[in-house]
């Protein structure tokens, strides 16, 4: 993936994620937005200019203006039906956040990542392994573990 996006209202988390994606994830361009509304505007502008949209989006759940859940619904409504949607990784401050379970059911969402984003998670999201490539076909409840085996994530 040469283009990714990070959507997070926390400047420290946003800057860390961008740095990791540019170094560990080997992403050429990382778009940044502080809330879902800014991110949608950026994606819409790219669509209007016939430019590529991000292949991967790292999305904070809890943000002012437009949160992660609202962003996902608006993105689904915005994208042309023929377009391959981005792989979305939800960023959350807590693995026990109940909102995480709701967004994991969205078809664009591959998995969630507890903040802060670390190099291993950034690299795996940008360069998915053989099981991760098919995880979206199985739904967000599946991903590969560090051992490379397919595992369920919402147990």
Key traits:
155 residues; alpha/beta; 6 helices; 7 strands
What does this structure look like?
By secondary structure, the protein is α/β, with parallel strands linked by helices. It contains six helices and seven strands. The chain has helices at residues 11-23, 36-48, 68-78, 98-103, 119-126, 130-138, and strands at residues 3-7, 29-33, 56-60, 87-92, 109-114, 142-144, 150-152. The strands form two sheets. Strands 2-1-3-4-5 form a five-stranded parallel sheet, with helices on both faces. Helix 2 (36-48) runs parallel beside helix 3 (68-78). The chain is globular and about 35 Å long. It starts with a strand and ends with a strand. The relative contact order is 0.16.
Q: Helical stretch count?
A: 6
Radius of gyration: 14 Å
Give the overall pLDDT as a whole number.
80
Dominant shape: globular
Q: Kindly report how far apart the N and C termini lie.
A: 30 Å
Q: Strand portion, in percent?
A: 15-25%
Strand order across the largest sheet = 2-1-3-4-5
Runs in which pLDDT lies below 50 for 5 or more consecutive residues are 132-155
Helix-strand category: alpha/beta
- Biggest pleated-sheet summary: 5 strands, parallel
Helix content: 25-40%
How do the helices and strands line up, and which of them pair or pack?
Layout: E1 3-7, H1 11-23, E2 29-33, H2 36-48, E3 56-60, H3 68-78, E4 87-92, H4 98-103, E5 109-114, H5 119-126, H6 130-138, E6 142-144, E7 150-152
Parallel strand pairs: 1-2, 1-3, 3-4, 4-5
Antiparallel strand pairs: 6-7
